[in-house]
């Protein structure tokens, strides 16, 4: 099924480095690309934005976050989001592909930064004044370099982006549940599981299926997920199902019966109970919000 939300490509923006990187101040970004970003949408790129003035809210995968001075949001490809911002909003935004980072750092992965470990991780950071000053300086340097035509421009943008993510990681690290104290092997297994769930959740709801695909026992996989997230493998499967249910209910004209079948369930009553147990409202009540 085609995505019910528009998926923005980085080539829809005036991106540098063969269309792999874009930077702007947030006010200009909104004014220039209002027709792309005014409604809920997804990206095929990474997005990082800081707000330095103004207020509002930023909804990411149906979780609402307060926008204040010093708020930073980091999104991976595929996440759904939109925002409602005050007229006095200011800040900076950068967009880039995975290839952009890979070209600059061939022996490292962007997903090793703590906010990009997992879709389970909080996409928000709220900076204090001291940290905000450091981060804003880096954003400003990226924007200035992006607007220039100086020699080694692309290399400097790559280095500044790396410094930005390092600075944000230092602030972020203390508050996340998936921390750097866990082994790299476990984190890779989590990412592999999330990828497998994303590919198969419509037809496969059993934790045993994913454990078998990963060549480990269901018990061992569950221990890994419990250790990293305090959840079970089944929790992750159902969270992905419910995220898609919310997306479809908010942006399509599917009935609950059609949604039930599409998501791989036979019993509409059972699915509705599952939805309410997870989200606190029935599918019908949820759809009325949108």
Automatic annotation (TrEMBL):
Keyword Transcription annotated: yes
Domain HTH araC/xylS-type: 191-289
InterPro entries cross-referenced by the UniProt entry: AraC-bd, Homeodomain-like_sf, HTH-like, HTH_AraC, RmlC-like_jellyroll, Tscrpt_reg_AraC-type_HTH
Keyword Transcription regulation found: yes
Keywords: DNA-binding, Transcription, Transcription regulation
PROSITE patterns assigned to the protein according to its UniProt record, in alphabetical order: HTH_ARAC_FAMILY_2
Protein name, per record: AraC family transcriptional regulator
Pfam families linked: AraC_binding, HTH_18
């Amino acid at each position: 099924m085609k995505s019910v939300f528009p998926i923005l490509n980085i080539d829809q923006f005036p991106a540098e480095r063969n269309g792999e990187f874009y930077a702007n101040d947030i006010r200009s970004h909104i004014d220039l690309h209002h027709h792309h970003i005014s409604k809920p949408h997804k990206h095929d790129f990474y997005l990082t934005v800081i707000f330095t003035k103004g207020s509002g809210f930023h909804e990411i995968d149906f979780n609402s976050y307060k926008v204040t001075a010093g708020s930073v949001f980091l999104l991976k490809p595929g996440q759904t989001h939109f925002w409602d911002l005050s007229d006095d909003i200011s800040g900076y935004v950068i967009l880039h592909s995975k290839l952009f980072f890979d070209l600059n750092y061939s022996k490292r992965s962007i997903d090793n930064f703590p906010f990009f470990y997992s879709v389970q991780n909080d996409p928000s950071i709220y900076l204090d004044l001291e940290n905000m000053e450091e981060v804003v300086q880096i954003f400003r340097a990226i924007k200035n370099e992006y607007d220039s035509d100086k020699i080694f421009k692309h290399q400097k943008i790559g280095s500044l982006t790396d410094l930005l993510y390092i600075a944000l990681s230092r602030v972020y690290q203390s508050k996340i549940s998936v921390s750097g104290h866990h082994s790299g092997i476990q984190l890779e297994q989590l990412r592999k599981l999330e990828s497998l769930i994303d590919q198969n959740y419509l037809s496969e709801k059993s934790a045993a299926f994913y454990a078998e695909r990963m060549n480990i026992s269901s018990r061992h996989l569950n221990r890994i997920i419990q250790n990293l997230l305090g959840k079970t493998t089944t929790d992750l499967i159902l969270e992905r199902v419910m995220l898609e249910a919310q997306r479809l209910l908010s942006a399509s004209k599917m009935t609950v019966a059609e949604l039930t079948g599409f998501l791989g369930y036979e019993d509409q009553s059972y699915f509705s109970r599952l939805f309410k147990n997870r989200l606190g409202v029935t599918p019908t009540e949820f759809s009325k919000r949108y």
